[in-house]
Specification:
By secondary structure, the chain is an alpha/beta fold. Helix 1 runs antiparallel to helix 6 and helix 10 crosses helix 11.
């Protein structure tokens, strides 16, 4: 089970007010979505689309969340929340017994998602009385009670923002690598738990593998790695030249891995007379699989490395590069003498747009009443719902859930606790990754304009003029 306390305090403080007014069992719909494509620090759009990642992780989380006794005790010790909870033993018991229940709708994992300010079906911008919603395909659309929706909002947003950010970054990098593989090497540049999710998302977005051992164990993602500078330096001896100890380590490594020896050549001098590439080739009798260069990675270095390997009789040896790679140099390097890339910190932190994908969660229906956040004058209005999204050629039409419109419906029912529907065990990273690849190929160089159906626009218009 997973601790249900991975949420913001205000979810619990406001829950008490709903509890007192007996509103926590009211049925509602909640939508999780982004208002726009990711932007950089200069507010420039830096992604062509968002790659939806987080479906499998989100469903796993929903099914496993619970409050255990130690966490309930922690809540009761809080100076503000604690006394209020202690005065409501029925609420403490409700938290103790709570498990997720409801319906979960979502696109297939790996789906490409676009978002833009509201447009009508003809493609004309729409706004009324200072209300201008964004329109998009939701990541999750969930039906449950107010009690449950308050408890799941924060953890789901954490999952969506992190994994979709990494998957979208990975897809962007893969497009620039011109079919040369990218491996995710960022485990040591992020939180120890987030690293596994990052490996999953990067692989979904098109990376060829990961250095993360746990990601291989948990999700069977291909695991790759060469060697570290630590290993080479640890072989040093006071009575030997560093070139000699590097050679000795390379030789010992090759004897353990004779069919897969990829050697790190920049610990001392990549192009030294008795270090680096020269040692790598000699220590393996020219049978090395490849080399990794982790510093001074540029076209000139790669040309020089390729020529030296060829001249030493190792034309088959592959060149993998790592160290500070991103969109700024990837495209140029991909046209040079490189065979694969290892990208770490700038992938798992999405350095150019590191604040997730701007995902938020908002109510779209409470009981039998449509609702939307108006936020007049801010362009932060949301949509009522629930909705269905129909993908057409060049257009995504966001409609009310019961509408029948031409196009491919994107939202699918993955979990319904009342009807016993649970498709989470059918989700497979390889299937999702292939789906994402196929969608990226299908929409290469294209974009989708997201528009409102006429019926949904009527509902939005009615809500926008209400209380005037």
């Amino acid at each position: 089970m997973t601790d249900a306390t991975r949420l913001d305090l205000y979810q619990l403080t406001s829950l008490l007010v709903h509890w007192d007014q007996q509103k926590t069992q009211t049925t509602a719909w909640m939508s999780f979505f982004s208002r726009a494509l990711p932007r950089d620090h200069a507010n420039r759009t830096v992604r062509k689309y968002i790659v939806w990642a987080g479906l499998k992780r989100g469903l796993e989380w929903l099914k496993s969340m619970k409050f255990d006794e130690s966490h309930l005790e922690t809540l009761q010790r809080h100076p503000i929340l604690g006394p209020a909870l202690s005065a409501r033993p029925g609420l403490i018991e409700a938290l103790r017994n709570w498990r997720f229940h409801g319906e979960v709708w979502a696109p297939k994992e790996g789906e490409l998602i676009w978002a833009n300010p509201a447009l009508d079906l003809s493609g004309q911008p729409w706004a009324m009385n200072g209300v201008q919603p964004a329109v998009q395909t939701p990541y999750f659309q969930i039906k449950s009670d107010i009690f449950t929706l308050k408890l799941i909002e924060t953890p789901l947003l954490s999952i969506i923002n992190h994994q979709s950010m990494i998957a979208s970054k990975a897809a962007n990098l893969v497009d620039l690598a011109h079919q040369k593989p990218i491996y995710e090497f960022g485990t040591r540049r992020t939180n120890i738990d987030a690293a596994v999710d990052a490996a999953y998302a990067a692989y979904l977005g098109g990376c060829a593998g990961t250095s993360n051992v746990e990601a291989n164990h948990r999700y069977q993602i291909p695991m790759v790695g060469t060697m570290d500078h630590f290993a080479i330096q640890a072989w040093e001896s006071p009575d030997m030249h560093r070139g000699q100890t590097e050679f000795a380590f390379f030789k010992a490594f090759y004897e353990v891995f004779p069919k897969s020896a990829s050697l790190l050549v920049d610990t001392y001098d990549t192009f030294g007379e008795h270090t680096g590439i020269v040692n790598a080739v000699k220590a393996t009798n020219g049978q090395l699989t490849g080399i990794r260069i982790d510093s001074k990675v540029n076209v000139e270095t790669l040309e020089k490395a390729r020529k030296l390997l060829d001249d030493l009789g190792a034309p088959h040896a592959k060149i993998l590069v790592s160290g500070g790679l991103d969109e700024s140099n990837l495209s140029e390097l991909s046209h040079s003498h490189v065979d694969a890339f290892g990208i770490g910190e700038r992938l798992v932190t999405s350095e150019d747009s590191p604040i997730g994908v701007g995902a938020v969660g908002k109510l779209s229906k409470v009981g039998d009443r449509f609702t939307m956040k108006l936020s007049r004058g801010s362009a932060k209005a949301t949509l009522p719902g629930p909705v269905q999204v129909f993908r057409q050629d060049g257009i995504d039409v966001v409609a009310l859930q019961d509408e029948q419109i031409e196009g491919e419906p994107l939202l699918n029912l993955y979990l319904d606790t009342e009807k016993g529907i649970d498709l989470s065990d059918q989700l497979n990273i390889e299937t999702s990754r292939q789906y994402c690849h196929d969608r990226r190929q299908l929409y290469q160089g294209k974009t989708q304009s997201v528009r409102l159906s006429n019926r949904l626009l009527e509902v939005v218009s009615e809500l926008a003029k209400r209380d005037e």
